[in-house]
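RECORD TYPE: protein structure
NAME: NosD domain-containing protein
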Amino acid sequence: MHRNGVQKRIVAISAMLLFLSWGQTQAATFVVAPDYDDRLIQATINRASDGDRIIVKSGNYRENLNVSKRIALVGLDTGPGKPVVDAGGIGSAVVISAEGVTFEGFEVTNSGKLWKDAGIKVISKDNTIRNNIVTKNEYGIVLDGSARNNVIKNYVCQNDVGISLYSSERCTIAENEACNNTFGGILLSRSNNNTIRNNNASLNRWAGIILGESSDNTVANNIARYNENQGIWLLRSSANTVRGNRVRYNDIFGIRLFYSNRNSISSNIVRNNLDGISLENSNGNVLAGNNLSINDYGIYADQSFNNRIYMNNIVNNQNNAHSWNSTNFWNSTEILRYTYNGVAYRRYLGNHWSGYFGPDPFGDGLGDIPHTVSGQERDYNPLRRTSEMYTLRG
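PREDICTED:
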């Protein structure tokens, strides 16, 4: 009996020690507020450990933060607004150098004016930047040499550049407001395999979305309106997908390709620009399924070759198309299977043009007379009706 009692005590003590040890490894939560003992965010970061959470209440925190630990920084609006991180005009307000950080719920402002001084600068991987207000910085949010970061639902306006990616890959930029910036809304430079989706990049002084020397990115379902030069600009960029965007009321270009090759531009609504889609020294791109209307020029091609342009609705522009020193395919280069009026066909398919009334003797939805595009350029298989009436199969 005595031995059994000793054994029971040993087991109980071991279990208690294991419980205490386990409890000591759990993440801690810190609370920062202007009238608390913990009133400095950086000092609290320095005390924290990986996995901890820091909740910051409303107030003005004039600090430059270096988030060098895998923690969650959560701004809490306790009445007067989101907590404000103010860089005081020097450097970046927030630098995230650790991996796996969450930064959400803050207002971030007043960075320095040097190149890449930012409201929020990320130089690491696997972070989430969410639901922040980032204004009056040189750069709003910068991802620099980073990967797999998520920038979601931020208001990034009234900076020089809103959201910037430099040499960054596999990041997602989604559902942000990137407007009223003095240069651009969203800028990618030498950044590949990123997703830019469901953002509003409007009212910027130069362009809404810019891809510079960047490849294999997807730019999808964004709004780019009222920018002073171009809605979406691809500059020396290749193999990108630009799909399902609404690009309207930009002063010059809706979607501009400049020395950019092998991109896919599809299913965009491009209206009320000077040029709907502009191809300048750009080759081998595919323009398919776009709605181009009420532009001065629906498609403007200048020294561009071997682009495939088909299944677009090019209607009610002052000039539906212009081609200068260019040779392109204004219809598909392979036979497509489609259904029209409930009947299946196999044909090459062109574009739907306003002002085209060629006959359709075979009832396959294609005009029997080629449409003159510009100069010697011809659409040999113009669509009699809008492309939505043709269902591609396979």
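COMMENT: Helices lie at 2-24, 41-47.
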